[in-house]
Amino acid sequence: EDIVALSRKIFEELKEEFETTYDDSGSIGRRYARNDEIGTPYCITIDNDSIKGKDVTIRERDSTKQVRVKVKELADTIRNLIKGKIYFSDL
Fold first, then answer.
1. What does the alpha-carbon distance between residue 31 and residue 61 come to, in Å, rounded to a whole number?
2. Three-state SS string across the chain, please?
3. How confident is the model at residue 16 (pLDDT cuts 50, 70, 90)?
4. What phi and psi values does residue 45 have, to the nearest 5 degrees?
């Protein structure tokens, strides 16, 4: 329940600024594959550690690398990645 609540909260906040989808069906691997196919550049994953640490995982499509980012820094991080102000490898 806590994961769903946090996921929905983050989704609602991000969709105000970014083209965003919410997917909770199937395994995480299948979710990544579906998003890779449609060209989603960054996927955000919320897990049990997200509740404890108030952070999420961002996965970059092109490199498939993942980093943890604090929830409060998430929108700024996504915005700066999209605008090319920072690079995923710098996170």
1. 12
2. CHHHHHHHHHHHHHCCCCCCCCCCCCCHHHHHHHHHHHCCCEEEECCHHHHHHCEEEEEECCCCCEEEEEHHHHHHHHHHHHCCCCCHHHC
3. very high
4. -120, 130
